Amino acid sequence: MGRCVFLSCASFLKIKIYNQQQAIKFLPLDQTRIHNEQYKLATQILEESCIDEELLAITDSKQKSHRILIDFIQNPEKLDIVDCGKFEEQLLLKNQPLLKFHVKSIVKELKAPFTDSRRERFYDPNSK
């Protein structure tokens, strides 16, 4: 598989991790539909939204990022504190307006990974 094909389909691949030993080989965001090109933005959003003092006290930046990502993925209710408007505004100020559209989709995906939004829009269980 070539680079372009991989980049086009990467967000559709679901990686199932069965044990902790396998988890070491993957990034926490690999278990979501967040496209790998948006990992940096997703990580930034979660790191800047983290209020857990224990996680913020970790000195190794790579380990800190990893633990924060896992914490938010395992506790999606914590995503309610994320201020999407703040991050969208930051992206506009950095002259990256196209990325602003990814902020809400990243948070939505982390709250409910692999939810098919088409089902919400088109499926009516009461219709016959």
Structural overview:
The protein is an all-alpha fold and 128 residues long. The protein has one domain (11-113): Arc Repressor Mutant, subunit A, CATH 1.10.10. 53% of the residues lie in helices and 0% in strands. The protein has 8 helices and no strands. The chain has helices at 3-9, 20-23, 39-49, 53-56, 61-74, 84-93, 100-111, 117-122. It is globular. It starts with a helix and ends in a 6-residue tail after the last helix.
**Count of helical stretches:** 8
Helices and strands, in order, run as: HHHHHHHH
Number of domains: 1
Distance between the termini: 43 Å
The percentage helix is: 40-55%
Largest beta-sheet characterization: none
CATH class: Mainly Alpha
Percent of residues in beta strands: under 5%
Spans of at least 5 consecutive residues with low confidence:
none
Multimerization status:
single chain
Q: Which second-level CATH architecture applies?
A: Orthogonal Bundle
Overall strand count: 0
Mean of all residue-level pLDDT scores: 82
Features of the shown structure:
128 residues, Arc Repressor Mutant, subunit A, 53% helix, globular
Summarize, please.
By secondary structure, this protein is an all-alpha fold. 53% of the residues lie in helices and 0% in strands.
Give the SSE map.
Blueprint: H1 3-9, H2 20-23, H3 39-49, H4 53-56, H5 61-74, H6 84-93, H7 100-111, H8 117-122
Helix pairs in contact: 6-7
